[in-house]
Design brief:
The complex is a heterodimer of chains A (498) and B (432). Chain A is mainly α. In chain A, 54% of the residues lie in helices and 4% in strands. Chain A contains 22 helices and 6 strands. A two-stranded antiparallel sheet of chain A has the order 1-2. A two-stranded antiparallel sheet of chain A has the order 3-4. Chain A has a two-stranded antiparallel ribbon with strand order 5-6. In chain A, strand 3 and strand 4 form a beta hairpin. Helix content of chain B is 35%, strand content 13%. Chain B contains 13 helices and 12 strands. In chain B, the strands form 2 sheets. In chain B, strands 1, 5, 6, 7, 8, 9, 10, 11 and 12 form a 9-stranded mixed β-sheet that branches. By secondary structure, chain B is an alpha/beta fold. The chains are: A mainly alpha (498), B alpha/beta (432). At the A-B interface, helix 5, helix 19, helix 21 and helix 22 of A face helix 5, strand 7, helix 7, helix 8 and helix 9 of B.
Chain lengths: 498, 432
């Protein structure tokens, strides 16, 4: 076991392959040129560039990107007239109201689809990939689903909150999330009143968002925590503290007593060692290794070291991310190719690293849905299980076929092939291997393509297979042949790893 | 190459066939199950636990909120015709309005009939293979499509958590997923099948349950097969993510060949043309092939009938009724009838009173259908009152979780309380 689990990687060990690893894990991959650029910077600067991304200019996200009024609550006037219609049983008026409700829901479903495409596009285009990757992490951590809240603007607001705190302060983000309209609605805290408490948010706050299931809290703590959160609700798009519904009595939570409100409740939780350890273990699974076994001693030591940094920095995320991405452990053989790509990672990484033209964003969105990760529609409050749960025989075919679509522009629509005629120029992948006469040596070209696409050296059997195929098709490594090599490489089981 | 890699190698499959490969003791059971399934089929001897003689549940989901009152017609209740002056279906003895026809007789004494488009279901009823469960719903009904569907699929009143069928597998699978345990015919798998451990297989058509890269160029097919059938490569740790993926890839190739060849065979009976019939035909082919699948899931949308519903609702019902009858026929011809039960549900019924557009708005309780030769045929439970309403909607008579409990306990023989998170007044629709 390592003396210091977070021992940094020696500068000279930060080579091209290490840079590819860093780009894949701290972001969504990059082109060969980008990986070389990163490797040339050296470890320290490379990690800084990814973690301290604020210095990289990128279009900011403004609240007016999406329509905030589609699902606005009815005005007083509308409320009165609909009440009248119900009382007098005015069928015409009731039918009109029903139609209006459906029209709004229809518009809102369109907007949530636009929001999905907008986010996927941003993940593909951003020069600040860790910002989006952490936003995705928090979407799966502080889970909220559109199916339950049916308000696309609230989902957008929450997404923006995650982006704002992506590498900020976890404690502050937790303070904001208990005031976030989407979360308050999703976990029924808008129904949490002194007179009739609802425990949903208090329970998940401890079980899923901070401490982890069964880690040192009791049912009594949940009940007391729920009281602390009474009156935390929202009006239209903003948090509203309803004093009349808040229980300001003294509560006992996790052994501490006080007239806790939501912030007081959070302070008690965040002071627990379990909290930093739980966040560290989730970051570990997201960034380092998601093998399904219980943590090994070595892994546990690394997680505890991460937790220590989180605590000493008062839950600032940059120091712990910086330490992880600089550590020798992160780059060790055991942690290369040790994560099964999420559907978003698979799609966005393929597009970013191979520089595939985005033909239809809607196709990318539905592809991720088919593979089991429909953003803004997590399956339940636990978010996506990740790891091996992404994979079975059918999702494996879908994953392989999504790559076929990306590489060739042909997609199966039920029973027929549809070709979208925007070609993919893959020759840039081998630019650096081009000889003066413009040709690329076949053996080194294929070896490089496979190594780059798989994120690690191909197994000898795989290399032989692809080499034999390519040779049988002629001697030149032209665009079509590069794409054929990519089709085979992306259909390898190990391509699902990053 | 070390010894433990061999069972996965294509060489063994090619040289010795599946039967020998499946007997190798080193095959992890992840793949062994599907390989054994094939052996049993080849040998014509479906014996042993987890093998084809096991019972099968087929779930048919009607999406959008099926209008229960125009599906099973309470023609004996005058309030029905008062509430539905233009879309009420006349009694069997009544006079047809326009092209819709009169209700098909279910039960004269109770005053119940079937929508005239449900001739398929009527024939199942007459054959003693249809159970009609009246007034099925749940407390504090939710009228949102999404939420109510999630409540039905999770069997959780907060619409949270994994699916009830997923939990059934989680509770019976000893910690590892059952290969091909549940299959959904459709693009995205329903929440109902999603477990913590067990995840469903899902495909729109078997033709898409394969790699499509060889459509780009035929020459790619051979190297693709070599790669995906190679199994665990040398120097790959057995417990690694890579090994897991290599095993699954080989499994996928085997399942793909099997499923496509099964569905490629002509059915034994004739089938109607509709999307839901196509889905059920695929299910029937997989059952005939002896897949180890325990639960199949199909769905039909289009039941959100807010306006001018008489014609469109009838067409929907006719498609599903005819498809269910064809499926049951095919099961009988395959001699699989005694091991298949089919359950039909929708996320809610519709408002008692018709709206101003000749349609109906979101409601609550509705009838469910359960079909099979092992089902206690007939009408179960009483029809909900049409006068004692909750905000214009029916009060449920039977909690749907009691139906699930009945199916879990008495059909799939699984502990329902653990899976459903409680005990519920069970129906009695499965023959002993």
């Amino acid at each position: 076991m390592l003396e210091n689990p977070l021992q940094p990687l020696p500068e000279k060990a930060f080579d091209y392959d290490a840079a590819v690893h860093l780009l894949n894990r701290a972001g969504f991959g990059g082109t060969p040129a980008q990986a070389r650029g990163l490797a040339d910077m050296g470890l320290h600067k490379a990690v800084d560039q990814l973690v301290k991304y604020e210095s990289i200019a990128y279009e900011s996200v403004t609240a007016d990107l999406f329509d905030s009024d589609i699902m606005s609550p009815p005005t007083e006037e509308q409320r009165v007239s609909s009440q009248k219609a119900r009382q007098s049983n005015d069928e015409e008026a009731l039918a009109a109201l029903q139609r209006e409700r459906q029209r709004k829901q229809g518009l809102d479903r369109k907007q949530i689809a636009e929001l999905q495409m907008w986010w996927i596009k941003r993940m593909i285009e951003t020069p600040r990939p860790l910002e989006e990757k952490m936003t995705l992490f928090f979407h799966g951590h502080f889970t909220t689903g559109y199916r339950t809240i049916e308000d696309s603007f609230h989902m957008f607001q929450q997404n923006q909150l995650f982006r704002k705190f992506a590498t900020g302060n976890f404690a502050q983000l937790a303070g904001r999330i208990i005031r976030d309209p989407a979360m308050l609605k999703y976990l029924d805290n808008d129904d949490n009143r002194k007179s009739n408490p609802n425990e949903n948010l208090a329970r998940e706050l401890m079980e899923l968002f901070t401490l982890g299931e069964g880690r040192g809290y009791t049912e009594a703590d949940i009940k007391a925590g729920a009281l602390a959160l009474t009156g935390y609700t929202f009006q239209d798009d903003t948090f509203y503290f309803n004093k009349n519904n808040h229980d300001s009595s003294t509560k006992k939570i996790l052994g501490k007593s006080g007239p806790f409100d939501g912030d007081g409740f959070l302070d008690v939780i965040l002071a627990r060692n379990e909290c930093a350890e739980f966040i560290a273990s989730k970051l570990f699974r997201f960034f380092i290794n998601d093998s399904p076994r219980d943590f090994t001693k070595e892994q546990m030591a690394f997680i505890l070291a991460m937790a220590k940094i989180l605590r000493s920095s008062k839950y600032e995320l940059k120091p712990v991310l910086d330490a992880v991405f600089s550590s020798a452990y992160f780059y060790s053989a055991a942690n290369r190719g040790a994560i099964i790509k999420s559907p978003i990672q698979l799609t966005v990484q393929a597009v970013r690293s191979l520089r595939i033209p985005v033909r239809e964003l809607s196709s990318l969105a539905s592809a991720t849905d088919l593979m089991g990760q429909n953003v803004f529609f997590p399956p339940n409050v636990k978010g996506w299980d990740g790891g091996r749960s992404w994979i079975n025989t059918s999702t494996l075919f879908i994953r392989q076929n999504v790559l076929v679509y990306l590489l060739t522009g042909r997609k199966p629509d039920m029973y027929e092939w549809q070709a979208i005629d925007i070609p993919f120029d893959a020759t840039h992948l081998l630019e650096h291997l081009r000889q003066p006469d413009g040709s690329v040596d076949m053996a080194s070209g294929i070896e490089y393509l496979m190594r780059f696409t798989l994120g690690q050296s191909p197994a000898p059997l795989r290399l032989q297979e692809v080499m034999a195929f390519a040779k049988s098709r002629g001697e030149r490594l032209d665009n079509n042949r590069i794409i054929a090599v990519l089709l085979l490489t992306t259909a390898m089981p190990e391509y699902q790893l990053c | 190459m070390s010894e433990h890699n061999i069972p996965y190698s294509r060489r063994l499959f090619i040289r010795h066939g599946v039967a020998l490969a499946s007997m190798a003791t080193t095959i992890p059971h992840f793949i062994q199950n599907s390989a054994l399934g094939m052996v049993a089929q080849l040998a014509g001897n479906p014996g042993g636990a987890g093998l084809p003689q096991d019972r099968i549940l087929v779930v048919v989901q009607l999406g959008g909120g099926n209008d229960g009152l125009n599906t099973v017609i309470p023609f004996g209740m005058n309030e029905y015709y008062n509430a539905r002056p233009t879309i009420g279906i006349p009694a069997p003895s009544g006079t047809a309005k326009g092209q819709t026809g009169v209700a098909l007789m279910l039960d004269q004494k109770r005053g119940l009939g079937l929508n005239p488009s449900l001739r398929g279901l009527k024939s199942l009823y007459d054959d003693g293979k249809l159970a009609v469960l009246q007034g099925v719903g749940y407390p504090n009904p939710n009228r949102s499509h999404f939420t109510s569907m999630d409540i039905w699929q999770t069997a959780n009143m907060g619409a949270k958590g994994n699916g009830w069928i997923g939990r059934y597998f989680d509770n019976t699978c000893n910690g590892t997923p059952i290969p091909d345990g549940s299959i959904n015919i459709g693009a995205t798998a329903p929440l109902a099948l999603n477990g913590h451990i067990q995840k469903p297989i899902s495909f729109v058509s078997p033709e898409l349950f394969r790699w499509l890269g060889s459509e780009a160029h035929k020459s790619l097919d051979d190297p693709y097969q070599q790669i995906n059938r190679a199994g665990i490569l040398p120097q790959t740790a057995e417990t690694s993510q890579a090994a897991f993926l290599m095993r699954t890839a080989l499994d996928a190739q085997l399942s793909s060949v099997r499923i496509r060849s099964a569905v490629g065979k002509s059915p034994l009976t004739t089938w109607p043309q509709s999307e839901i019939a196509q889905q059920l035909r695929i299910v029937s082919a997989l059952i005939r092939d002896g897949m180890p699948t325990r639960v199949y899931y199909v769905s039909q949308g289009g039941y959100d009938t807010h306006g001018g519903q008489l014609g469109s609702h009838g067409r929907q019902l006719q498609q599903v009724g005819d498809a269910l009858a064809a499926f049951q026929n095919e099961m009988a011809a395959q001699q699989s009838e005694d091991r298949v039960v089919t359950m039909v549900f929708s996320e809610f019924g519709r408002r008692v009173r018709q709206n101003a557009s000749g349609g109906t708005d979101h409601g609550t309780a509705a009838p469910m259908f359960v079909i099979g030769s092992k089902v206690k045929a007939g009408v179960h439970g009483d029809h909900p009152s049409l006068t004692d309403l909750d905000q214009g909607d029916l009060k449920f008579k039977q909690d749907f979780r009691g139906v699930y409990a009945n199916i879990l306990e008495d059909w799939l023989r699984a502990p329902s309380a653990k899976i459903l998170g409680g005990t519920f007044a069970k129906t009695s629709i499965i023959k002993a």
